[in-house]
Hints:
Layout: E1 3-8, E2 11-16, H1 19-59, E3 70-75, E4 82-83, E5 88-95, E6 103-111, E7 118-119, E8 122-126, E9 130-132, E10 137-139, E11 143-147, H2 155-159, E12 164-176, E13 182-194, H3 197-216, H4 240-267, H5 282-290, H6 295-303, H7 307-322
Parallel strand pairs: 4-13
Antiparallel strand pairs: 1-2, 3-5, 5-10, 5-11, 6-8, 6-9, 6-12, 7-11, 12-13
Amino acid sequence: MGKLQKFSAGVREDKPIDQGRVGEDYEQDCTMGIAKLNGIVLAGLLALSAGGVRAGESATPATTPTSEPEVTLALVDPDDKVTVWQAMRLQVTLVNGSLPAGVGVTSLKVSIPRELELSPREVELISDAIELNAGARRDFPPVELASQPARDVAFASLITYRPRKVAFVATLKYESLADKRSATRTSKLVLPARAHPIGMYAGGLLGSLLAALFLILPPVRIRGTGPQAQTPPAGPALTALDRLRELGVRFVRGTVVTAIVILLLQTTTDVTLPINIAVQDFFGGVLLGLFGDKMPMRCKKKSGVDRSDAGKFRKTAARTTCM
């Protein structure tokens, strides 16, 4: 234990020092200082946060999120395919948003692509103004689209139509009942459209005619006496009537075969052709018609049936009929 030296009137007096009490006083003073500092910091943070919230409330007042009305378009049957000049049905639905006072709808129209050759070209679903509350929904009856009359159809465009995507557009005009604000919204339904089968048949006719003309035309012969000179073929020459007859036979045969193949492709999906051709429009029909005259021969070779077997079958059938 240390001693405290005290000088008084020239006399030194030694007193003992209690170190434990000195430590306790020091620790108590430190604790009180830290507590005061924490209190000051906490009070400052609370004051700043309260001031920030009040400033935020005054700068950005609380608003209720709103949404505008929407129009949805869809096929009545999702499995249906859109085909040019073929009837179809559309489903139209109007869904209002969350505007508190609701909206007043003044007009709703659906525009039909002209290249589809459907009637009517434009459908007006709402002509008189109606009011819709917040979140209201309205399902309209299916829109029936019929084929255009034949007299109004542009057959050149119909026959040569190529598959592509088309867009049905719905236009909605409305105004907010709260602030009388007018607005217009549009919705689109984009679908792939197929060519009409009539285009494929027309292409098959043209392809069969071109193939028949190519096959009956006489070959070009080079006249002269040199090594390039060609000798006329042996046998009697074909007359004009013979060539016309052959042209008719080849054309009819190619047309019939092409029509059968197109019909099978339209009604079934597992048809395997001797040649790989995608028949989807007029131009695919032309390619198919070019090979229509030769296709029966290819099928006969693949199936193993030759002329002798066909002759035996015809003779057997004739005998059975006579008996």
